[in-house]
Design goal:
Length: about 375
């Protein structure tokens, strides 16, 4: 007859060989309980949750909730949850932060945005080129309280030009002998009446002028900015140009050519700026014969007028591209068009972005010198890496 008595020795042997089974069972049970709790636990609906986005200033979530939550509940007792998200737009190593912020706003996420006055000015002062979010609608409907700040665009109103020029002159005197400062202005070619050659801009006491094209006339008669995000560009192309990318691109280069013929400026800014968004709508478009022919026509007109061309490095660190694209550098050399390297920086910390890489790319293309402003005149300077 078998001995089935439960003894201390048998228990010890049993657990020695089967302990892992109990441990696994406990872990699985805990996991199942966690899943059941996660699935069945109460979650406040969206209308009872408050999302606070903090830009460029770390907030300790626990401390903030402890201090701010009672005040919020006192004002809005129906709210049940507060979420705080920190977004650092100044971290150059995180190129996705601005995209993340823009996506949140576009998706209408977030109830409160905590941002400094200076940072709000910086975001909007970047204008259409780098605007993280189009603010006009929010300003018009009162969602954003500008508190007296002009946030509707990053352009310089004519009424502010005198103040701008006076400030440049003051800074010139203040930094005389230490920094060469020049009063410059990027002037958009809007049409035959409003462009760098207009009497108004010609009479301004500027040290140099940049001619550029950002704005195009849409099929509906409105004016749109091609220097925007790829997503917004694609939407604009579809809704306001009938999806005809070749027609829009051709019109862009034609406008550049009209600007070159009209004159009134020292150098052309970001010649083929449209290429970045065009390539994202239709990969390979800049390699097509008609595109190359149109770009060449534009550069030939620039050469004939004896104008300078800017190598714009603004998007190099983020996107790895120059304007004009490096594939045009050989054409610049062939046509003997003088070039200067410009970061198009909208913030002091970006003043030198991509400069070394642009110089190296120019040398690789056989261009040995760039033009710089020295002693208030344009002079050639050898590229030394």
């Amino acid at each position: 007859m078998a001995d089935n008595r439960l003894t201390k020795k048998r228990l010890k042997n049993h657990f020695a060989y089967n302990w892992w089974k109990y441990a696994l069972s406990a872990a699985v049970s805990a996991m199942l309980v966690s899943i059941v709790f996660a699935v069945t636990a109460y979650r406040p609906p969206a209308e009872k949750k408050v999302e606070l986005y903090v830009l460029n200033g770390y907030i300790d979530t626990e401390t903030f909730q402890r201090d701010f939550w009672p005040e919020l509940q006192a004002r809005k007792p129906e709210q049940e949850e507060l979420t705080v998200l920190n977004i650092n737009l100044t971290d150059s190593s995180n190129i996705y932060a601005p995209m993340q912020f823009s996506t949140y706003v576009a998706a209408q996420q977030g109830d409160l945005f905590l941002i400094s006055r200076d940072e709000m000015r910086r975001i909007t002062a970047d204008g259409a080129q780098e605007a993280l979010v189009e603010l006009t609608g929010y300003l018009d409907n009162g969602v954003i309280d500008a508190d007296g700040m002009d946030l509707k665009n990053g352009t310089l109103d004519r009424g502010d030009v005198t103040t701008y020029l006076s400030e440049i002159e003051r800074l010139k005197r203040s930094y005389a002998g230490r920094i060469e400062l020049y009063a410059g202005m990027e002037i958009d070619y809007l049409d035959e009446c409003d462009n760098p050659a207009s009497d108004y801009f010609r009479q301004l006491p500027l040290d140099y002028r940049i001619g550029s094209v950002h704005l195009m006339h849409a099929d509906d008669g409105g004016i749109v900015d091609i220097d925007t995000s790829p997503e917004r560009f694609a939407e604009m192309l579809s809704g306001r140009f009938g999806g005809d990318l070749r027609r829009l691109t051709t019109a862009y280069f034609d406008k550049l050519i009209r600007m070159v013929e009209a004159g009134g400026f020292d150098f052309v800014g970001h010649v083929d700026k449209i290429s970045y968004n065009a390539e994202r709508c239709e990969p390979g478009i800049t390699s097509r014969g008609w595109y190359r022919d149109k770009a060449r026509e534009c550069f030939e007109r620039i050469a004939a007028r004896g104008l300078l061309v800017e190598i714009n490095t603004k998007k190099y660190n983020a996107c790895g591209v120059f304007f004009p694209n490096r594939e045009h550098f050989g054409l610049l050399r062939e046509l003997r068009i003088p070039v200067l390297v410009n970061s198009d920086a909208h913030r002091p910390e970006l003043i030198d972005d991509g400069r070394h890489e642009a110089m190296a790319a120019l040398r690789e293309a056989g261009i040995r010198e760039v033009i710089e402003r020295v002693g208030n005149r344009w002079v050639p300077v050898e590229i030394v890496l």
